[in-house]
Specification:
Length: 79
């Protein structure tokens, strides 16, 4: 089961639009970044536990996407 937390994009058609989305999938935060250059996905380094408080950052710098959860980072890059 996937739950959408945040979506930023140029439109709502995920097949044609550039977008960045943050979802919760299988107890992990998943950031999906898509442009005309391609699509990449990065997930949180640790599972998310219901009832706990988390500090979450989602950063995009050029072709790099980083997700930071409670100070721990996962990084990916669009080729």
């Amino acid at each position: 089961m996937s739950q959408l937390i945040a979506y930023v994009g140029s439109g709502f058609n995920s097949h044609r639009s550039d977008y960045m989305a943050l979802t919760l999938e299988n107890n992990k935060l998943v950031a999906t970044y898509k442009t005309t250059a391609g699509k990449d996905v990065v997930s949180s380094p640790e599972p998310i536990i219901a009832g706990q408080t988390y500090s979450v950052g989602l950063l995009r710098t050029g072709k790099q996407v980083e997700i930071v959860v409670n100070g721990r980072s996962s990084l990916t890059s669009l080729d």
